[in-house]
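@channel sequence for tomorrow's demo:
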Amino acid sequence: MSTEGLVTGTVPHTWERLDSLAERFGPTFYLADVEHFEENCRRFLGAFRAVYPRTNIGYSYKTNYLPHLIRRAHALGAYSEVVSRFEFDIARELGIPGTRIIFNGPLKRVDDLLEAFSAGALVNADSIPEVDLMVEASSRSGRPAQVGVRCRLGAPGPQEPGSRFGIDLADPAGVEAIRAIDAAPNLRLAGLHCHQSADRSAETYRSRTETMIGLHHDVLGGRPLDYIDLGGGFASTMSPELARQLESPSASFEDYAAAVGSEMRDAYGGGGPELLLEPGMALLADTMTLVTRVETVKTQGRDLAVVDGSGFNIQPPWNLLRRNINLPIRVVVDPRRASASTGPWDVVGHTCVEKDVLHEGHAGPVGIGDYIVFDNVGAYTNVLNAPFIRGTPPILAAAEDGSTAVLRPRSTAADLVASYLTPDGAA
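structure tokens (generated this afternoon):
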């Protein structure tokens, strides 16, 4: 079937509907809402352009590799933001022109830079040695290349070494790196880049913008730049229950736009550098839902509902290790069963990992055959899924006519075996 017009927001999360999908695709699956993703892109850009019209976004590949979303973002005019040669090659496989690729990341080899320069990509240097590689690659290619520098923001404290990413332009070595770019006949310093995501408050983004503008003025003398790229880390739209668990206050797209856009407007008016943003989580987190079925229940010091899915399907490993986010759930009750215990329930995964807990302390009836629904799982989930113990779940999208498209099939044992080779080269 065509994948045009795919939606999930109109698909009712009734037990009958979810059970029908489980019969066809397995008891754990993602539902992707492509139309909502487009709405997020338009809302985010609209908020920023209302304050600073020269704004654009880069789709963050590392946040979600789903090709259908990448193509939709490209059709809306977004750049493709990649952080490795692997992701650069994904963009090229999907037909993204090199001139619409932003190449970030801490590890680029000369061959990667040659390929990126040849394609006309915008490349941001993460380190001083990488600037040296850029100079070498530009000399070998003989092609003009536009490059930027990732800035290491914030002075490290006495007990804190600071970020391991970026170049400190306040340091003499950073100034020398800029001079090396300027001295290379085929390189042009096109912009400044940064990315920090620990604090997602709007005021932190305002301060970050002020710092980048200051670097442009103080270190670069206010020379013309094509862009200032503030990276990502922006918060997504979320429920109050989830927002209360965040370490820093959540903000709306309009809050971010007012904080960042006003600083850019006040500094540059209407004709300054293009403001580039890489809002992976903000655009993607609330565009996917995970549905998983309760397979068994047991009591071992607490009531446990064992599901076919896993915590690795709904949160990145760093959240699971910190155990600081308890994702809200919806329980879709199997209407065929009698009443069940009201718990409180811990929803636990299928793996042999003690910490594989998807949700703690649900106060309500849960039983075998129920479906547990997790929202806000569109960021850093399917990219980090490994075929650990039960394979990776499929990603589905429902069409307006009631049919279902498979955007990524469920992985199988045959898929895994075929991905390995024996010493003689056979599968």
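heads up for whoever presents: The chain is about 30% helix and 20% strand.
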